[in-house]
Fold:
Amino acid sequence: MEFVFVLNKYNDEAFKSQVSKALEMRTELISRSEYPRMWKYIDKMNSKKKVSGEVLKKRRSRYKVYGIFLIFMGFFLLIPSLMKPGELLIPLVTGIFTVGLGILYFRYGRKSGQEKLTSFNKAAIQLLNEYEKIPEGQVTVTFTDDKVLLAGNGEIGYDEIDKIFITEDFFIIIWKERITVLQKKDLLSCNAEEFIGFITLKSQSFFETVHINA
Structure:
């Protein structure tokens, strides 16, 4: 039986988030195999109760309010002190310190709420840019019993595959330090569950399949 994917336009947001997560997990799995003692400690730390997103959001809001309040208080002390710095040295120093502290609080409150662009995000974006160059409906990837057939007469042996990550929308194949991303919706010859059963059977002899929840 053959499983044929015909590549079409990729969903940008799903690609970026799910592929970056797969790349991050791949790096983690490699690190875990090389440094098991370190990860035992990390897992122990991560098992402790974490602050919820709602609590973090409120905390960030408080930091911004504290920052604005301290900045105003600092200027309230600073402006009069600048007129008579010799006589009002303590209020001057206190005002400068308070303004600086307020700025730090305000910046921390803003930055904490911003999502950081990681190296995995950047790699996913770069990969997506390459996939967007692929003409829609003209490139196929076929899985046979013996190998994976790529466009342009390329092929992958199942023994060359390291891992296949299964996400909500994609099959992400890691082979020879390369990556191939296939959308589930581009599978024409059968449904995704049948293909998952096929690659799970193959993985018992050749590679590892990793399911990533959304």
Observations:
- The two ends are 30 Å apart (CA to CA).
